[in-house]
Amino acid sequence: MSNRLPPQGIVVGVDGSPASTAAALWAVREAAMRELPLTFVHVIFAAPWGPTAFGRPPASAVAEISPEQEVTGQRIIAGATRIVDGLEFSPTQIDREVLLGQPVSELVDLSKHARMLVVGCRGQSLLDRVLLGSVSTGLVHHAHCPVAVIHDENPPSLQPCQLPVVVGIDGSPASELATAIAFDEASWRGVELIALHAWSDADEFDIGSTEWSAQQAGAVEVLAERLAGWQERYPDVSVDRRIVADRPTRHLLDAAKSAQLVVVGSHGRGGFAGMLLGSVSTAVAQAARVPVIVARRR
């Protein structure tokens, strides 16, 4: 069904949970701000058919959406789309999809045609309510486009916000994509960008003072090089450059407390992205109470 989606639109997964309602709210504002189509998607879980000792199941055994499931799915989507009612703005186009399958697989497939995927940090199931949630975790590992993870503890506002956008930079391709996304988001919102660069994941107290000074000087130069081209492209974005020596997750989360959005890379080398998704990106997406965009590339 993904080939029916408007190309390069925003896709939001909804399941009726508070987190998915918050995700829908954030996605509506993002799509309206960028004048992009928005698609609400609800995936009805179906256990995958796999090879067995008797071979794959016959075509007649493939499950279909029952009338009852269709009604439930449409009710969940209708509840999410009611967010748009009464607003002074709305996305250029709103579409709705009810799919049957595995939520992660279906949404990953849709991500091939989307500008961005938006999901709540946790879903309705017991499994999804553990830590980051199985669906959001699967998407930040496997999606083919950036993934926005939204928390419901501090629901996003539809009103303009002057708080800054935060991005973690380490110089890797993944953090370069995160930097591009962060500049674009800050420009659309008309807010400051905080560019945070950590040159080590070691504890600051484990580093000698001479080595610390040398590393810090090098980090200042690296950050300046990584920002130069983007500041030329986005002259309207004011940048607050911050160099930290250690513990990138802690510093990102501290900055997130007074920000409206955090952008991180999904993998890279050293610093923020180099500790792989299992560390910084997942930790930030899980612990931050503001929306977090994990940069994913096709």
Describe the structure concisely.
With 298 residues, the chain is an alpha/beta fold.
Layout of SSEs?
Elements: E1 9-13, H1 18-34, E2 38-45, H2 67-81, E3 94-101, H3 103-111, E4 114-120, H4 134-142, E5 147-150, E6 165-169, H5 173-189, E7 193-198, H6 209-233, E8 239-244, H7 248-256, E9 261-265, H8 271-274, H9 277-287, E10 292-295
Parallel strand pairs: 1-2, 1-4, 2-3, 4-5, 6-7, 6-9, 7-8, 9-10
Antiparallel strand pairs: 5-10
Helix pairs in contact: 3-4, 5-6, 7-9
Notes on the protein architecture:
About 10% of the residues have low confidence. The protein is 39% helix and 19% strand. It has nine helices and ten strands. Strands 3-2-1-4-5-10-9-6-7-8 form a ten-stranded mixed sheet, with helices on both faces. The chain is globular, with a radius of gyration of 20 Å. α3 runs parallel beside α4, α5 crosses α6 and α7 runs parallel beside α9. InterPro entries: Rossmann-like_a/b/a_fold (IPR014729), Universal_stress_UspA (IPR006015), UspA (IPR006016). It comes from Mycobacterium branderi. It holds the Pfam family Usp.
Instruction: Report the average pLDDT across residues.
Output: 82
Separation of termini? Answer: 19 Å
Work out the strand percent.
15-25%
**Number of β-strand runs:** 10
Radius of gyration: 20 Å
Give the count of helical stretches: 9
Pfam families: Usp
Domain UspA: 10-151, 165-296
Organism: Mycobacterium branderi
Protein name: Universal stress protein UspA
